[in-house]
Amino acid sequence: MASSKALKFCPNLKIVSSNRPLIRSSSAKVMEVLSRYGTLERMSVDEAFVDLSLQKNPAALVQTILKRIKTETNLPASAGLATSKLVAKIASDFDKPEGFTIVEPGRESKFLAPLEIRKIYGIGPKTASILNGLGIKICSDIVSIDIQKLLPVFGQYSVNLKNKAKGIDNRPVDPSPWIAKQQGTETTFDVDIKDADKIELALQELCKEVSESIGNMGRSARTITIKLRWSNFKTITRQRTVPGEINKSQDIYKVAKSLLYENWKPGKPIRLLGVAASRLGVSDQQKLQLEFE
């Protein structure tokens, strides 16, 4: 459940800021366990594919992997076992936080048939809206519809759509190094803050943490985003893309501070403050003179 939705149900809910160093450390431990059993493709800080196609008893091995993750990291994990990455990913979400769903070979299409089309990787809100307009709500609708009705709208991608809805996905597990799309952090204040000096100090600390995160990755960023939540729980995000790559905390802070004062009137209480860096590239920072006050 999204935190914004949780806050509507429970206005007095206290949200604790994430511990980014601990998250990275825990992620590394889990990935190390997974890497023992086959080719590993890391998808995010808490998701990965492992190729078990050469194992004699993959189902039993997955049970072992889940137990070892729990024993060695004290973290819950769920898993999906299937013949393709697309189906395995969907299966892994079926029985969280510590479930295990198996989709037997040949049953991929039947497994996907009753699921909403948004479950399929690559079908976002825009594509889903167009498909809904064609009367397509669930995966079986894509399988059964005449491809001639899809071709005028999606062209050759129509074949891909039908294959995905059947669970056909020939992408191999790719061991290439995983690169995060963004790095960010946020803090929820114990008491809503409206003092400009305190807000700026908190913003500086967040920018330092983001700078360290992307610096440790050997990356730099072009887009900086700030997140603001007011005392009534309304939340906004604002971002700016700079002309060159940055990774130093003072440069990130200049951009973040500019965004802050464009969207916050001093004296208005702030409940949560966040900073994120995205559009990450190889660190070769240009000497930008960012003229933000």
Could you characterize what this model shows?
By secondary structure, this protein is an alpha+beta fold. The chain has three domains: 100 residues, Reverse transcriptase/Diguanylate cyclase domain (Alpha-Beta Plaits), CATH 3.30.70; 56 residues, DNA polymerase, domain 1 (Orthogonal Bundle), CATH 1.10.150.20; 101 residues, Dna Ligase, domain 1. It has eleven helices and nine strands. Strands 5, 6, 7, 8 and 9 form a five-stranded antiparallel sheet that branches. A two-stranded antiparallel sheet has the order 1-2. The longest helix has 21 residues. It is globular, with a radius of gyration of 23 Å. The C terminus is likely disordered.
In summary, what is this structure?
By secondary structure, this protein is an alpha+beta fold. It has eleven helices and nine strands.
